[in-house]
Structures are given as structure tokens and as C-alpha cells.
Design goal:
Blueprint lengths: L13 E4 L3 E4 L3 E2 L15 H13 L4 E3 L8 H10 L7 E6 L1 E5 L2 E4 L3 H15 L4 E6 L8 H13 L3 E7 L3 H8 L4 E5 L10 H10 L2 E2 L13 H10 L3 H12 L12 H9 L7 H8 L11
Parallel strand pairs: 3-4, 4-5, 5-8, 8-9, 9-10, 10-11
Antiparallel strand pairs: 1-2, 6-7
Helix pairs in contact: 1-2, 1-9, 3-4, 7-8
Length: about 300
């Protein structure tokens, strides 16, 4: 097959999630299509809908969202823009947070809340089953096993195809895998934030997907090392940060988010970037101070 026939989001290859969901290794995160503070509708709804549709045109077949983005707004926009969904599109969503206001997040991973959150996501996304449903974060006020057990039961009921985790440690993953198969992990990770380095390696060892959130990280601050290499390769710092992730591990599926078609196209173009080994090693050798997980 000639390279011209391969859609841009597929040019970094594919990864199969859960043994049956093959996705292109450049996904899309739908948090940024909401309003300021990840609250309410976007300032430009038409632009948000157009961005979602353009992502599909470029070959994106993994969209990541959450019931807490809006709350509910992101899922509603995805359905409005894309339903009936194209064949092969995987929508991954999450539950486990509540939103009292803009930029405010409170844990609630109780079984009761997760059931309600899942039902809400099904309704907003106009689906009978969620392909990949992620526990958004462990809740210190609730037994982690109880949260995962609730998702296991929803999977048995046919409302979830695959269970996944977000914002977790290796211990969480191991504990969850004793209850239900786990197909992916979503932690904050980027060139500039490698606190989850060992989680990436663990996911690689057990062959489950790793979806880095905030994948561009401090490339936004034009870090000297990444800017120097980006200039040499004639690409943007954002594109280089994504290319580094794609080369870092075969299980990484970046999900950069934006409400701008221009930025979307720039991000997805990074799937075509062949990062030279020397450049990869130079960036990998840059030391970054640890940063705590958050969302």
C-alpha cells in the first residue's frame, strides 16, 4: 500500500486494545472542546463540532472523553458531531469524579456513583455499550476493589466492553487485574513529565495500552532541549513531543486534545514524523524533576 493511502492518524501504526479494538496510534482527547474551566459549552460550538469531524477525516478512531468534562458536555458534543458513528470508532470515557464548578473536581468512585455515571454516559453518547470505560481516579474514601468490582459487574451486564484505569500506580493496576481484565492505563506523561516511566514499561511488558494525558506537557513552554531539536528537524515543539512519545513505546497511544482544527492537524501530522534515534536519545537524556499525578 502506498503511503498516500494511509490516513494521517494511522502513519505511526496501530495498537489493538483488549485484543479486539484496533486503533490508530494517534487518538484525540475531547476535554478541551468544553468551556473555560472544563465547564459548560464551548465558546464556539460550531468549531468544536468541526474539530471532532475533522479528527475522523484524518483517521482518528480513538476518542477519549469523560462524564466530568463539562460535565456531560464533551460526550454530548461527540454524539452530536459524529452519531451515527463510523465503523471502527472507539470511544473511551471515564467515571469517578464530580464537578461542583469550573476548575473544581471532587472524587466519587463509589459503586453507586459509577453506575449512575455509566448510565449517563451511555445516554449522552447514544450507545448501548461503552467500548473502553475507565475509572477516572482511585477514591481514598472508597475501597479501590469496590470501585473496580462495580465496573466488573457492569461489564458482565454488557454495558462495558473493556475496563480501564486512569491516574493509578502499578499497585492499583495489579490489584485491579485480580478482579477484571484491564486493557489500558491513562496517566499524565510526556517528554517533560516522566513520573509514570515505570508504568509505561509495565504496560509494555503486559501489552496493554498506555494513553498519556497532557502528552505535550512542557513543550508548551518551549523547553530549550526540545526547541533545539525541533528547529533542527523543522517541526514544532508540540509535534516533536508527540513523536517522542510514539517512539518511547509501542503501547503508547497519544490523545492530544484541542478545540482548534489547525492545532488538531498539527498534532496528527506528528504521526508521520520519523524521529531519528540520535534525537530521541538526546531528548530522553534530559532530566526532568518529578511531578505528582493530578487531573
Amino acid at each position: 500500500m502506498s503511503n498516500e493511502l494511509i490516513l494521517p492518524a494511522a502513519r505511526a501504526g496501530t495498537f489493538t486494545i483488549g485484543g479486539d479494538l484496533t486503533v490508530n496510534r494517534m487518538g484525540y482527547g475531547a476535554m478541551r472542546i468544553t468551556g473555560p474551566g472544563i465547564w459548560g459549552p464551548p465558546a464556539d460550538k460550531r468549531a468544536a463540532l468541526a474539530t471532532l469531524r475533522r479528527a475522523i477525516e484524518l483517521g482518528v478512531n480513538l476518542i477519549d472523553t469523560a462524564d466530568s468534562y463539562g460535565p456531560g458536555t464533551s460526550e454530548e458534543l461527540i454524539a452530536e458531531a459524529l452519531y451515527p458513528y463510523p465503523a471502527g470508532l472507539v470511544i473511551a470515557t471515564k467515571g469517578g469524579w464530580e464537578r461542583p464548578g469550573p476548575n473544581k473536581w471532587t472524587h466519587n468512585a463509589s459503586p453507586k456513583h459509577l453506575i449512575e455515571a455509566l448510565e449517563g454516559s451511555l445516554k449522552r453518547l447514544r450507545l448501548e455499550r461503552i467500548d473502553v470505560y475507565q475509572l477516572h481516579a482511585p477514591d481514598n474514601a472508597v475501597s479501590f476493589e469496590a470501585s473496580v468490582e462495580a465496573l466488573r459487574k457492569l461489564r458482565e451486564q454488557g454495558k462495558i466492553r473493556h475496563v480501564a484505569l486512569s491516574n493509578v500506580t502499578r499497585e492499583h493496576i495489579e490489584r485491579a487485574r485480580k478482579i477484571v481484565p484491564i486493557v489500558s492505563v491513562q496517566n499524565r506523561y510526556s517528554f517533560a513529565d516522566r513520573e509514570s516511566d515505570f508504568i509505561v514499561d509495565y504496560c509494555g511488558a503486559i501489552d496493554i495500552a498506555f494513553l498519556p494525558w497532557a502528552p505535550i506537557g512542557q513543550a508548551r513552554e518551549a523547553h530549550d532541549a526540545i526547541k533545539e531539536v525541533a528547529d533542527q528537524l523543522h517541526v514544532s515543539s508540540f509535534q516533536l513531543a508527540l513523536a517522542w512519545l510514539l517512539k518511547r513505546s509501542k503501547v503508547i497511544v497519544p490523545i492530544p486534545g484541542t478545540g482548534s482544527i489547525k492545532h488538531l492537524e498539527e498534532n496528527i501530522a506528528s504521526a508521520s514524523l520519523e524521529l531519528p534515534q540520535a534525537a530521541y536519545e538526546k531528548l530522553s537524556a534530559v532530566h526532568h524533576p518529578p511531578a505528582s499525578l493530578r487531573n
